[in-house]
Amino acid sequence: MAEKARLEAEAAEKARLEEEQRRKIEEELVAAAKREDERLRRQEEAATKRAAQEEAKRKHIMAALRREEDTRRRAEEAMAKVQAEKERQLAEALRRKTQFSKRTGGGFVVSFKPEPKEEKEEVCAKAGGVEEAWGSRNSRRLDLTEAGS
């Protein structure tokens, strides 16, 4: 009986040791799984953080490109306005150059376009002289007093 009790005690001790080893192995496996889960969670957080940083960087770059494009567009518009103004001023200067006006007595202004010099010379040559080309002294003159006050 003592032998039987000793064998039972040894079997119980052996079962307890096996249970203890099994529990240690389970605890180690659980701890390893937790460490692995923690490592994966940190990796996911790092990937999410990198993705957010890259998204922010992309947005920043897009905003900078948008600003540059707006600046370029405004500069082109301003350049076009300046060019149009220059062309307008040039056309105005050309118009002034080709059209003259003279003040006459009585507050009248006579506008005329000068003839090119080549044509004047041709007219003079065809007409037989300056007086004939520009009119003689006996030509009819406008009477400005008829216009009224």
Largest sheet: 2 strands, antiparallel
Strand content is 5-15%
- What is the share of helical residues? over 70%
Shape: rod-shaped
Spatial sequence of strands, sheet with the most strands: 1-2
Mean pLDDT: 82
The total count of helices amounts to: 3
Number of domains: 2
Q: N-to-C SSE series?
A: HEEHH
By secondary-structure content and strand pairing, the structural class works out as mainly alpha
Given as residue ranges, the uncertain stretches (5+ residues, pLDDT < 50) are 129-134
Number of strands: 2
The radius of gyration computed from the alpha-carbon positions, rounded to a whole number of angstroms, is 54 Å
Q: How many angstroms does the end-to-end distance come to? A: 157 Å
Any overview of this molecule?
The protein has about 150 residues and is mainly alpha-helical. Helix content is about 75%, strand content about 5%. The chain has three helices and two strands. Strand 1 (about 100-105) and strand 2 form a beta hairpin. The longest helix is centred in the middle third of the chain and has 97 residues, at about 1-100. It is rod-shaped, with a radius of gyration of 54 Å. The N and C termini lie far apart (about 155 Å).
